[in-house]
Amino acid sequence: MLTGLTSGCQKNDPAANAQSPPPLSVKLQKIGTGTIEESCQFVGSLEAQQKVILQPQTQGRRIESILVSSGQ
Question: Can you give the pLDDT at residue 43?
């Protein structure tokens, strides 16, 4: 009777008995270290977010000199 009980508890799974596919072969390659320079070139123009118009506060006066350079 003990043999009958233990044989009834065993699982007979057909998927477990199926053979797994063979392992895939892979190719190994040695790598080295080095420097990679990445650059991009673009053509465009820049425009300031804020603009200023220089003019005298009273009529008849002239601006004689601007003491800053473009970009300052």
Answer: 93
